[in-house]
Design goal:
Radius of gyration: 18 Å
Distance between the termini: 25 Å
CATH class of the largest domain: Alpha Beta
Largest sheet: 6 strands, antiparallel
CATH topology of the largest domain: Rossmann fold
Strand content: 25-35%
Strand order of the largest sheet: 4-3-6-1-2-5
Low-confidence stretches: none
Helix content: 10-25%
Number of strands: 11
CATH superfamily of the largest domain: Nucleotide-binding domain of ferredoxin-NADP reductase (FNR) module
Length: 249
């Protein structure tokens, strides 16, 4: 247990039967917006901890820590997290990790953030940072869900739109029902056929854009391929590009 620090649940918000947000009070954990830490609970009688990685929703200066997660059927941890109540103990890794951070992303005119499901979590943290708005003229948040009730954190998104009017656009995909003001289908296909760029009204090109992608591996893979059709490639320190990804599954 020396690898973890003990925290206390402040609150648990249930968005749907499967989607929840856990707020935790704990000692200081240094992280960059977009990074993740591990949440853990004891397993068995030998003091072992079972842990899984979750991205911070909050900005580094905000408290409590907040994590957006989905209950995985038969999963060893998420179901147990969902049963926690205010005052219960939960453990956290004292450090953070991950490269889905702006310090790893080159400058550009436009920053695109593509997310499916709970993959929106690290982008919410990034959008709260001054760095994002200092370095990019226009930012587009693209969120894809199956049903409209899975669109969590809309209050935070709408506040950001008010605070950064004219610089922040959002595009929502809902795949399993028809919802006014949203796009149907998948993000990769909308990149290919131009619907995504048209809906945002922001240029999506190798010359003008950086793209960060977080979500299920199929979306990540297919979006990278679709962006490749526009001459974009994965960014690496030794070979600069326009695409930064993290599988969130």
């Amino acid at each position: 247990m020396e690898k973890f620090i003990q925290g206390k649940v402040v609150a648990q918000r249930r968005w749907t039967a499967r989607l929840l947000s856990l707020q935790v009070d704990a000692g200081p954990i240094g992280f960059e917006p977009g990074q993740f830490t591990k949440l853990a609970l004891p397993e068995g009688d030998e003091g072992r901890m079972f842990a899984r990685a979750y991205s911070f929703v909050n900005a580094p200066e905000e408290r409590p820590y907040e994590f957006y997660y989905v209950i995985v059927p038969e999963g060893p941890l998420s179901g147990r997290l969902a049963r926690l109540e205010a005052g219960d103990a939960v453990w956290l890794s004292p450090g953070a990790a991950g490269f889905l951070v702006l310090s790893e992303v080159p400058d550009a005119d436009n920053l695109w953030l593509l997310a499916t499901g709970t993959g929106i979590a690290p982008f919410l943290s990034i959008l709260k940072s001054e760095t994002a708005w200092r370095r990019y003229q226009r930012i587009v948040l693209v969120e894809a869900v199956r049903h409209a009730d899975e669109l969590a954190y809309r209050d935070q998104v709408e506040r950001l739109k008010r605070e950064h009017a004219g610089r922040f656009e959002t595009v929502v995909f809902v795949s399993r029902e028809s919802v006014s003001g949203t796009l149907a289908g998948r993000i990769p296909q909308a990149i290919l056929d131009g619907r995504l760029e048209a809906a945002a009204g922001v240029e999506l090109s190798a010359a003008a854009s950086q793209v960060m992608i977080c979500g299920n591996p199929d979306m990540v893979r297919d979006s990278v391929q679709a962006l490749g059709e526009r001459g974009m490639k994965k960014h690496r320190r030794r070979r600069p590009g326009q695409i930064t990804v993290e599988n969130y599954w």
